[in-house]
Amino acid sequence: MKKKIAIFGSTGSIGKSLIDIINHDKDNFEIILLTTNKNYSNLLKQAKIFRVKNLIITDKKSYNIVRKKKLKINIYSNFNNLNKIFKNKIDYIMSAISGIDGLSPTFKSIKYTKKIAIANKESIICAWNILKRELNKNNTEFIPVDSEHFSIWSALPSKKIINNIDEIFITASGGPFYKMPISKFSKITIKDATNHPNWKMGKKISVDSSTMMNKVFEVIEAKNIFNLPISKLKILIHPESYLHAIIKFKNGLSNMIVHETDMKIPIYNSIYENKEYYKKIKNLNLNKLNKLNLKKPNLKKFPLVNILQKIPKKFSLYETILVSTNDTLVELFLKNKIDFISIPKVFKTLINLKEFRKYRNKVPTKIDQIIKLNKLVQLNIKSIYN
Description:
Blueprint: E1 3-8, H1 13-23, E2 29-36, H2 40-50, E3 54-57, H3 60-67, E4 74-76, H4 82-85, E5 92-95, H5 103-109, E6 115-118, H6 121-137, E7 141-144, H7 147-154, E8 165-172, H8 190-193, H9 203-211, H10 213-225, E9 233-237, E10 243-249, E11 254-258, H11 264-272, H12 286-289, H13 318-334, H14 342-351, H15 354-357, H16 367-385
Parallel strand pairs: 1-2, 1-5, 2-3, 3-4, 5-6, 6-7, 8-9
Antiparallel strand pairs: 8-10, 10-11
């Protein structure tokens, strides 16, 4: 029987990687739903190849263009009609819509799938307590797709063993500025900040990597997923990006997880459940293992890492403040409205404002709370620079 799946954000990098994997094994999969924001031309190509009958296009202009084509498929403009698309629970959903925009679709889809693979960081950072409750309520299996978290997840023979973890080390490449002297940071351009040495990524996540904010978020994700205090989670610089995580257990043993810089590896294993072998597997790279070169991050170069000391112990809306503030500042940088070195400086100032700090003690209870707060933060910050 074919495995029934849906891909949220099928025209993004994660979505296209999954599409490519399925394209080599069409006989075993039926795609029920594909979604995009604006990239309708790519979406329609995917729908034609896999004979997909349901599409969601969230950008109003793009949706209207496709609707006028009068295709013999169902076209929706939002995620409010999932009950019409999924008559029964499907086998797998990949949630790969980027940013806060992916939060509501992720939450709404949980009840319609047996397993959900979440690549959307914001869902796990801002709303994990809400998502976890929904996952348990609907008996839906969760699997993280981010390479570091998937590596940790896959290295745990039983989820019960989480209680035996002493600490976890998450590696970071150091981005494009790992070896650059601080004295040259003031001259960093958009092109410099979006040119990652190891991974092929979009502009936004590339900038996050260059400031190391992506690792701050990954530590918060790990805190939530594995129910560990921040003090048990450490960041190590590893320029080769071959080692993804180290798990140190209370019994004195440690697990190290290595794989090539290929996001198809966690994506592939998330959908095949480790029952199939990855067709493009390479031999263990002993040269890279002999040159792990692990170091602690330089906090003068990457001051945003210090933010981890301010993360509340319990779930709070303050995490949404962090995400929204960073998203807005990166957007301003990519529009040439602020320079690179202003990102951490302005970030620190903003998150310490009284009107933002008050959210440290407020627990998110609804997805709408997070979405409204995100919009409020963005409007407040953009009003300063417009």
